[in-house]
């Protein structure tokens, strides 16, 4: 029977990888800071545009419509998120932006980015702008997203030396957590080892690197309990507590149920889209608060 043990372990790893990949894909498709995809019909041609919902401070603060039709006109309407201010407007301008391409130490000018662009005013970290737009073609003028405006959140730049390991450890923790939970279900003797490793990776990625990322992006190292209600921070804290409990309860005696529960809780928490209830700047006080970002309509 021993010859089947490696096969079982391989199966556990494959199942954990599949679950993790599915969770990652779901999070990317539902996250409120990823570009919103929208279908736009212009002069009987359908275009799939991506509407920006996250802008890094100091970068290009423009909304782009990837519509390759120079005969139309388009206008952007924007204001501060959830404010009583009236909407301001600005015309989109068609641009073909040359991008430097390098080949054999020579620089070539090529056109990669073209479409209609409209600027929005840059906001401080965690500041937000809501917007909608209209397009006028040969058939007339049509409004898009005016009933459910798109929201842009501004953030500071996070160094890749901090962001990359944070992302790695967070998703590696999820993979190991899934593996530990699966092994605990089948009572594999190594589940205790992976329970401990999951806690360590979550500590590094979520409780150490996470606040550093938050500090760079929004000027607040921790915006969760007991100081505020940032969901990203709070869900990391909840997962961390459950894995501490799982390690503690399995230290002297095998109690796989605690690892199973911790694994399920982590999977649920990771299924909550990143930044769904994220940091938000109060424009009146200048303080970082939290605000709900609607997922289905924004």
From TrEMBL:
Transmembrane segments: 12-28, 163-186, 193-219, 231-249, 256-273
Record key words, sorted: Membrane, Transmembrane, Transmembrane helix
Name of protein: Uncharacterized protein
Organism this protein belongs to: Draconibacterium orientale
Lineage start: Bacteria, Pseudomonadati, Bacteroidota, Bacteroidia, Marinilabiliales
